[in-house]
Amino acid sequence: MTNQERIEGWRKKRQAGLLPTDPQANALSAAFTRTLALVGEPNLDIRSIVQIALDGLPAFPDADRRELYQRMHEGTDAAIKKRSLSEVAADYWTRRVKGAVRMLEADLRKGVDVFSSGYLPQGLAEFDSKLEAGYRLRTRQMRITRAREERRQATREDRAHIIPVPADEAADLARLRPLLDYLRAVQRPTHNGTVPPFQTVGPLFLLRLLLIQADSRIALIWLFVGPLVIMVLWSSMYILNGMRFVLGMDTVTFTLTGVVIWVMLRQIVFRSSEAYVGARGWLNFEPLSPVIMSVMTGSVYFLVYIFVLSTMVGFGRLLGLISLPDDVLGVLSCIAGIAIIAVSMGILFASIASRWAFFMRFSSAIERFLQVFSGVFFVSEQLPYEYRKYFLWCPLAHGFQLLRSAYFKAYKSQDANLNYFLVAITLFVISALVADRLARPNLQPT
Amino acid sequence: MLENVLDVPRIFGDSHVLLEDASLVLPIGRYALLSANPEYHPALINILTGLRTPRRGFVYRTGFISWPIGRAGFVRGKLTGIQMTKFICSLYGIDYTACLNFISEIMTAPEFLQKRIAEWPSYVRLEYTFSIALVPAFDMFVIDANIPIEETRFSRLWRSVFEDRIVGNGLILSTFREDQLIDYCTKALVHEQGKFWIDDDLEACIRRYPPRQSRAEQPSGEGLDGADFGDSAEADGLL
């Protein structure tokens, strides 16, 4: 007899009013009630479902078992409805009951003794564990989907989405939130969303000092020792040649003013250019720009070397080696002018290097070349008149000679021109800003 | 706001016309940055946030915009975490002590703050990068990375605080993770053919301009460094 023939026979009997008999009605009722009670129970052993069918089977002839199974399915549907199971859970339980029944029926048709003690359809446990794994996976996915939808809804409504956190972390969170509220309340207001440049001066000054110190524990000390060594070497050359004075300037102070300021210049040139191109990470902070970084770096080195010069003059004076400046303000102004040229050169070099990195290899040669023409070792008045013009084109020569004119009472430069020096400073600054404007679009913060 | 911006930066060794006579008014909102070339997003973010000057045109900022969160460019080098925190606090006018307390509280291993950043493990750098960004009271957050979503204490705390921070404020998010774009954004900020525009249909835009395959979806790239933030499903805290 085929399955279709069984179904047809069962329908005919039902239409003829032959079903159910009392024992069958009782069995059907029990199957429905027990299924209703069991479906949806956590940790339910699938054998319980098989047992419902086995208990009802004796009341039904072969062809009528479908009625029993049907009642079990109706019981499943009723349980799903009663317990308001989710779509995923409903599908799981429906498949579970149907699967158990299908495997039992298959064994019945194969002639397996299903009423023997300890009977279970073969492969039922594997079937059930696979079904459960699938159910857990779908449940997890459903929860993720629901959580994500809640997350997205919070975004759409512009409200905070609650992230589930364990109890100990909730305590941490309870401490963090008021801390942030406080931080927000006391934060310095911005000017239309930007930090005014003058407010970056202090932090950047401190940063540059920290970066210098971070190079080495002796980095700040070396700022003094470096110029001192060169000064001693150069002074020695004059002293060994028997020169105590250069155009009325004592040689030790003469070399000191040349060496310290030149070391300052080259430090500013190279450090400010390094700050311009080499510190792109800092550019992620809106208040900082390459020019500000360069200018602040130059300012730090300017102040550091003013301090170095003051200290060396002070100690030198105590030892009777160094003379004191005649016009302190004039000296400081000239050093500031040289520092501005140095920063401008640094920005110019760095702007070029931002497109052509190899240019920085030339920069040290340019610096050495300028050193010869800048009056560091000598002043133009020491040279024969016809050669002076070959040195006085260099604005730095004017700067150094004006500096020495201000420092020494006995020396007043005849060749240095203040106007030339000031115009040169202006042109250097303009050139640096133009170079920055051209280079800036290519400087990407990293 | 962008006004007639022309931007032709050198990227990957060549000049690219990223913006050409581009104008844009960007009201406060949550935007997913999308384009056919996600590798140009950092350069675009630099322009949008005013970190880089365009060749021509103007960029106006009317709100307090964050630095591109997730970039670790400044979190490296010779400074210690404490020195770096002090610098950022002084730059933005933030209470240093409270800020350090916050950072120490949220980070997994705050003891590293006393060490040089160069000596930090990558996960500490990432945690620091993300946590310090929560401190200033930004009006617009710009995130140029995957949002941390792994199932860790730091990630849960960071996201919880970030959820508080972002309410009423704006967001520009550039990430390779589509799910994060949909989770956190409501609109698309689309860049195409030298222009920006805003599109309300975020999901359609994501289909049109799919972000690059995320690291988590690349079998060979998984766990390359500390930027591996784990499975986004875990972010929901339900597993």
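qc> Residues 3-148 of chain A form one domain.
qc> done
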